[in-house]
Design brief:
Layout (H helix, E strand, L loop, with lengths): L6 E6 L6 H12 L4 E7 L4 E6 L6 H10 L8
Antiparallel strand pairs: 1-3, 2-3
C-alpha cells in the first residue's frame, strides 16, 4: 500500500493552446497510476498534477506529458 502523502507539481506546457489539447493532456495524465487529480490551465499554459510520490515520480509525469505529444518547458 502506498504511504507517504500527496504532492502537487505544476508543469509548464508551452505548446498548450486550446481546450481540446488540454483534454488530451488531462486524459493522458489521469491514466498514470498514482495521479489523484489534474487541472489544466490553458491560458497559463500549464498543468497542475496532484499525485502520490510513492507511486509515481515527477519524472514519470513529465514523460507521460511528452508521450502525449506536449514538450514540458522550464518551470
Amino acid at each position: 500500500m502506498c504511504q507517504g502523502g500527496k504532492k502537487e507539481v505544476a508543469l509548464s506546457i508551452p505548446t498548450l493552446k486550446c481546450e481540446s489539447c488540454g483534454g488530451k493532456l488531462k486524459t493522458a495524465l489521469e491514466q498514470v497510476k498514482g495521479v489523484d487529480g489534474v487541472r489544466v490551465q490553458v491560458p497559463e499554459k500549464r498543468v497542475v498534477v496532484n499525485f502520490k510520490p510513492c507511486a509515481v515520480s515527477e519524472q514519470q509525469l513529465r514523460a507521460a506529458v511528452e508521450h502525449a505529444g506536449f514538450p514540458v518547458g522550464a518551470a
